[in-house]
Amino acid sequence: MKNVLVVDDSRIMRSIVKNTFGLLKISCQFIEASNGKEALQIITSQKIDLVLLDWNMPELSGIDFLKTVRAKDEYKDIPIFMVTSEAAKYNVIEALKSGATDYIIKPINEKTFQEKLAKITI
User: How far apart, in whole angstroms, are the C-alpha atoms of residue 65 and residue 60?
Assistant: First the structure.
């Protein structure tokens, strides 16, 4: 079973992401983190197969988490999708240059998730 790390400071948003993901009938286990600092502790202690990451969070932002993780060789192959309301073109470019696998703008929907996930193996 694949481990999917859902990182968002909003519990409601984490539920929405998990529910949308669940509609795709992909068998996985969800692990939740409410900020990037918590997500870093999780990713170093468990095998994670996919990260769904918000941008704006307390303690450690999504973009800073992304840069930290991508600086380490052992995490270079983990798909990391930014799932955020940051829709400005420069945000998308910064995330992709920093190593994001893909970028999903909130509000999310099943079709978008399906298209993005089809590009990776999970």
Answer: 6
Nearby residues of 7 by Cβ (< 8 Å), 6 or more positions away: 32, 33, 34, 35, 36, 38, 39, 51, 52, 53, 54, 57, 62, 65
Name the DSSP letter for residue 108.
P
Total structural domains within the chain:
1
Q: What is the pTM of this model?
A: 0.94
Q: What is the CATH number of the domain that holds 25?
A: 3.40.50.2300
- Domain containing 96 equals 2-117
The verdict on residue 122 lying in a domain is no
Please, what is the Cα angle at 106 between 62 and 77, to 5 degrees? Answer: 45
**Cβ contacts of residue 43 below 8 Å, gap of 6+?**
5, 51, 69, 75, 78
Q: What is the DSSP letter of 21?
A: H
Please state, in angstroms and rounded to a whole number, the distance separating the CA atoms of residues 14 and 24.
16
Q: For 5-61, what is each residue's pLDDT tens digit?
A: 999 999 999 999 999 888 888 889 999 999 999 999 999 999 999 999 999 999 999
